[in-house]
User: Which sequence fits this backbone?
């Protein structure tokens, strides 16, 4: 095209008609039409293709190169401004079907990019070797033709593991912006009142995680906004499927450090704490009137440690803990505490996670008998040398954390296995390493060791066998290191049997359980009489009595035991029938309440206790009594929830109450929250007849509130479990 225009300019030919040297294009009257764009300003030979029109994307010719539009830009240099946060979220990425082979990385959520990109480093970390493909990268700086790998079947998950998406084909690209200053942090969220409630949902800045992934609009579900926090002239937050993120200017009046800083001025406070803020000039000091000039001059003496960083506040806390509690026991073994962080969150019980990991390990080892033999030999050595022991029973409020285990081989030592106790395993967003102080780096510098290794003619190397296992943990923190044991119930019963026998020659027998594993652990003489020869997996077990309730071992549920013996139709007979319904928990409280109402009506009769009642009461009473037969078909699950409370991340009690002119009632439910689901279980119900002398409905509502309060106290005092939240419900606005 340039050659054509040069010829026209050189000879003075009109750019419109290309047929005259007598005029210019602005004075040309010839009618020309471009066959490409239908313009009347130039002929087809001088058509210039300016690319696709603004506001849309041209459909791609199958034979042309793929085009990737990436509008995410990073401006560097001397442009001044404040700190701004982008949609950057900490995620885990792994190949489909390999969740343990994950990489923790920051992902940019960029809706201006029509394709998801990843840096070469992520490809290398995931060992991705795929075919290469040519494509064009369009950015604010222009268009580049590149050849890169394409990764398929990658999965991205949120940090807590609750959300996962199958990523579209990922294009290798090293032009993803890497500005870590734009990553949101909890401290930043707490600076703004409208964002403070989401600070707990934003992870701390991970120094090891890099920005290796850009998720474009080809994964549209990652851009859906599930919740948001907005305010006038302030940054806003969005809850995406992969987590919370903060967007916008986060500095007041755009006052922030410049884009590049070589030196920061640091102030030293009176307590030797460094700060970038200028200290207050007003202070109280105590001065010695007598100053020795020689000592005064020593203040300016230099020492070898002047340019070395001092210990952080966390390092000082760590050293204080070790200084006070690290010691040798009576047999000469070193004993150390767990250096927990001050103000750390309580560790959740990760029993389900450890069991799942243990099952995966068992399945993996069974496929490789040699590896299983090595693993068993290693663990036998751990126990035989006293490096691990059976954990003591847990008390109700004990903090507990189970360490998942996995087996690895050293690449240069294929016959030597190592069982790794995974303290970095995360559960509910928390890991053991997260709540422990890392402490200062007191190890010898490797480079210095190598230098000293070459000093003399003779050199010696040695290794401490299983050094880390030789340190004991202080007893008060041993409950944190636990391995899930399936036979805890058996061990508890055995220990109780031994204690009772040794302490008072008392024999504990007639063992009953809904678990065949527990039943099989005891001899026939130790089982209940009607369960001696019963296999719960094959045979139908007889119903058992548990504190007056009927327990079905097969379904692990309670049955309602109803006596259908007809009593005389007298006041005494009615009362006897009502009292025969044993319902301490309130499973059938609505049914018994109907019987109480009928009994109160019968009390208005002048008949004596043992004389037949008038016939007008009998039909209604008989109908109610016949309905009791249906209660025999009711089955109430024994546990509150299918998984129990031991591994729950949250336990809530919700109490409802109501009142009428006839009765007042209250009921409590348990809400158990786990990682991926929530279950509701009935706890306790109570119903009472309203006083016969007619109270007002507001007063009866107060009576129902008192009943609800009593139920709540009963539940919280006797449930023997952590209650995270207690809430009451009523339809009355005057209580």
Assistant:
């Amino acid at each position: 095209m340039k050659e054509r225009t040069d010829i026209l300019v050189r000879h003075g030919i009109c750019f419109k008609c290309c047929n005259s040297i007598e005029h210019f294009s602005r004075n040309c009257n010839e009618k020309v039409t471009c066959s490409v764009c239908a313009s009347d300003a130039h002929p087809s030979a001088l058509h210039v293709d300016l690319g696709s029109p603004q506001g849309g994307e041209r459909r791609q010719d199958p034979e042309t190169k793929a085009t990737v539009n990436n509008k995410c830009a990073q401006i560097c240099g001397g442009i001044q401004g404040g700190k701004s946060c982008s949609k950057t979220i900490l995620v885990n990425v792994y190949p489909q079907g390999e969740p343990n082979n994950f990489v923790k990385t920051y992902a940019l959520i960029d809706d201006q990019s029509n394709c998801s990109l990843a840096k070469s480093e992520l490809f290398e970390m995931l060992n991705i070797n795929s075919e290469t493909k040519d494509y064009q990268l369009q950015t604010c700086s222009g268009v580049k033709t590149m050849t890169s790998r394409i990764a398929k079947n990658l999965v991205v998950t949120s940090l807590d593991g609750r959300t996962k998406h199958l990523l579209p084909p990922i294009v290798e690209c090293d032009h993803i912006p890497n500005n870590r200053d734009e990553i949101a942090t909890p401290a930043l969220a707490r600076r703004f009142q409208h964002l403070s409630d989401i600070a707990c949902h934003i992870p701390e800045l991970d120094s090891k995680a890099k920005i290796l992934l850009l998720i474009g609009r080809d994964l549209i579900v990652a851009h859906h906004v599930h919740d948001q926090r907005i305010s006038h002239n302030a940054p806003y937050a969005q809850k995406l499927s992969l987590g919370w993120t903060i967007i916008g200017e986060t500095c007041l009046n755009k006052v922030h450090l410049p884009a590049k800083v070589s030196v920061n001025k640091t102030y030293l406070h009176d307590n030797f704490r460094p700060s970038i803020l200028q200290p207050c000039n007003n202070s109280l000091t105590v001065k010695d009137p007598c100053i020795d000039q020689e000592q005064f001059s020593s203040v300016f003496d230099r020492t070898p440690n002047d340019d070395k960083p001092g210990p952080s506040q966390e390092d000082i806390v760590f050293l204080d803990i070790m200084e006070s509690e690290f010691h040798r026991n009576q047999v000469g073994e070193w004993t150390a505490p767990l250096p927990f962080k001050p103000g750390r969150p309580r560790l959740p019980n990760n029993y389900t996670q450890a069991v799942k990991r243990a099952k995966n390990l068992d399945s993996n080892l069974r496929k490789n008998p040699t590896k299983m033999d090595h693993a068993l030999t290693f663990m036998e050595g751990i126990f035989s040398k006293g490096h691990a022991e059976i954990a003591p029973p847990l008390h109700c409020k004990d903090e507990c954390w189970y360490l998942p285990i996995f087996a690895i081989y050293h690449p240069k030592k294929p016959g030597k296995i190592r069982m790794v106790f995974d303290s970095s395993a995360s559960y509910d967003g928390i890991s053991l390493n997260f709540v422990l102080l890392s402490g200062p780096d007191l190890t010898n510098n490797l480079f210095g060791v190598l230098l000293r290794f070459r000093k003399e003619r003779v050199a010696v190397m040695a290794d401490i066998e299983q050094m880390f296992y030789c340190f004991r943990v202080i007893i008060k923190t041993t409950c944190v290191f636990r391995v899930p044991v399936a036979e805890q119930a058996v061990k508890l019963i055995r220990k109780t049997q031994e204690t009772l026998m040794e302490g008072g020659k008392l024999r504990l027998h007639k063992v009953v359980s809904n678990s065949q594993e527990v039943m099989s652990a005891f001899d026939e003489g130790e089982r209940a009489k009607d369960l001696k020869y019963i296999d719960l997996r094959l045979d139908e077990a007889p119903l058992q009595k548990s504190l007056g309730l009927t327990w079905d071992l097969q379904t692990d549920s309670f049955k309602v035991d109803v006596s259908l013996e007809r009593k005389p139709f007298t006041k005494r007979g009615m009362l006897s029938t009502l009292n025969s319904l044993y319902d301490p928990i309130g499973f059938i409280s609505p049914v018994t309440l109907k019987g109480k109402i009928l009994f109160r009506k019968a009390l208005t009769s002048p008949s004596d206790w043992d004389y037949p009642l008038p016939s007008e009461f009998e039909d209604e009473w008989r109908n109610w009594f016949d309905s009791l037969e249906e209660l025999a078909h009711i089955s109430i699950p024994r546990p509150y929830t299918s998984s129990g409370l031991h591994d729950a991340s949250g336990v809530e009690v919700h109490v409802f109450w109501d009142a009428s002119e006839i009765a007042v009632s209250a009921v409590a439910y348990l809400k158990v929250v786990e990682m991926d689901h929530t279950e509701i279980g009935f706890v306790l119900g109570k119903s009472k007849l309203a006083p016969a002398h007619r109270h007002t409905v507001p007063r009866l509502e107060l009576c129902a509130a008192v009943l609800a309060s009593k139920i709540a106290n009963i539940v919280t005092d006797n449930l023997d479990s952590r209650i995270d939240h207690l809430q009451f419900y009523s339809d009355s606005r005057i209580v």
User: Anything to note?
Assistant: The chain has 15 helices and 29 strands.
